[in-house]
Amino acid sequence: LEFRRVLFRSCRPGARMTPVYVTQPCMPPLGEFIPYLETIWRNKWLSNAGPVHEQLEAELAQYLGVEHIALVANGMIALTIALQALEIAGEVITTPFSFVATSNAILAGGLKPVFADVDPITCNLDPDAVEAAITPHTVAILPVHCFGRPCDTVRLAAIAERHGIPILYDAAHAFAVRKSGASVLREGTMSTLSFHATKVFSTCEGGAIVCRDKALKDRVTSLRNFGFIDQERTGMIGINGKMSEVHA
Questions:
Q1: Annotated active-site residue in 44, 112, 179, 199
Q2: Average pLDDT, stretch 28-39?
Q3: In the Cβ-directed half-sphere of 189, how many Cα atoms lie within 13 Å?
Q4: For position 8, what pLDDT does the model report?
Q5: Phi, psi (5° rounding) for residue 113?
Q6: Is residue 199 annotated as a catalytic residue, yes or no?
Q7: Are 198 and 173 within 8 A, CB to CB?
Q8: Contact 141, 170 (CB under 8 A)
Q9: Are strands 178-179 and 138-142 parallel, antiparallel or unpaired?
Q10: What is the DSSP pairing of strand 138-142 with strand 91-94?
Q11: Which helix (H) or strand (E) holds 80?
């Protein structure tokens, strides 16, 4: 659904049309937001992992039940950086039933999206179709937890292990979703989140990458900040994918 799309209804022909919004963001009272802005203004620290950013990152990790999470500017950047962090080249099996950002991120990374069919009930990737689509050129699987309903992570993990390829989950719809008592974000090598205005948890624009281990998070943290590994050196070709203090 597009954020600004509206439906119109009227009780009789010629009546005044009243907009019925499909969705609107749930926002806190402005008075609760102002103190955060005042803190940022006092700090004069607007970006580059400021104190508000670091607080949000730590509290999200605890709330979501994950160890390693890195905030980024939006959901597509999360996918783009996560794919780059995998250091892969070739075909990525993914779903045709997703927002265009999923495929765009694959193409932007110089990779080739290969579409496998979805289950007609869950709308998630069909594991049998995934396995059938694997070729010697397959380097990753990128499923989407469609509408927050978890994929068949057990079968997909078995396929990935059997073929020696990573799984990157697009979990844009799956904030705080749990499966078998644990966060679904712990599945696969990485999971990406979107904090866009249309999502359950929103920072207006924003996103995050959940990583399997600290080494992977360190790589993601470097990639989101131009590839810097310290104050003076870059160790890889990164982008500017940081989340600002105001968004945090």
A1: 199
A2: 95
A3: 22
A4: 46
A5: -75, 135
A6: yes
A7: no
A8: no
A9: unpaired
A10: parallel
A11: helix 75-86
Contact 169, 191 (CB under 8 A): yes
Q: Give residue for tokens 């289950």.
A: 119
Q: What is the pTM of this model?
A: 0.90
Q: What is the DSSP letter of 229?
A: S
Task: Compute the distance between CA of residue 228 and CA of residue 132 in angstroms, rounded to an integer.
Answer: 40
Beta bridge partners of 208: 71, 193
Q: Give the span between the Cα atoms of 112 and 3, in whole angstroms.
A: 29
For 80, the token pair is: 């783009």
Provide the token pair at 148.
């927050």
Q: What region does 65 belong to: left with phi over 0, alpha with psi -120 to 50, or beta?
A: left
Q: Give which of 207, 203, 183 is closest to 194, Cα–Cα.
A: 207
Going by C-alpha positions, the residue among 72, 70, 130, 75 that lies closest to residue 101 is: 75
Structure tokens, 60: 């999200």
What does 197-222 look like in DSSP terms, one character per residue?
A: TTSSS--SS-EEEEESSHHHHHHHHH
What's the CA gap between 115 and 95, in Å, rounded? 5
3-state SS assignment for residue 153: helix
**For the chain, give me the number of helices (H) and strands (E)?**
7, 11
- Position of tokens 């699987």? 141
Tell me how far the alpha carbon of residue 54 is from its chain's centroid.
18
Tokens of 121: 């009930």
Confidence of residue 13 (pLDDT cuts 50, 70, 90): low
Local confidence band at 216 (pLDDT 50, 70, 90 cut-offs): very high
Tokens describing residue 149: 């309903």
Contact 145, 183 (CB under 8 A): no
